[in-house]
Specification:
single chain; 75% helix; 0% strand; globular; membrane; transmembrane helix; transmembrane
Length: 76
Amino acid sequence: MARFEQELKWLALALGLASTLALVNAWHPWPMVLGLPFCLLWAYFGWLRTEPQLKYINIVFSGLYVYGLVKYFLPA
């Protein structure tokens, strides 16, 4: 994975932008679908090593995205 770190950073940027665009345009559930891999990449790599709490924030958001996706796709 470290070999492809730069490419994964670009992928994370694209996922973040796409997630934001989906959120602004209310294209549900796409903000969660695109935001989950974004958060997982950030949590795995911890790209801002000077701010370790960012890793835990991304773990929390990943859990919330999983919860939201399960709630969205499972019938009520």
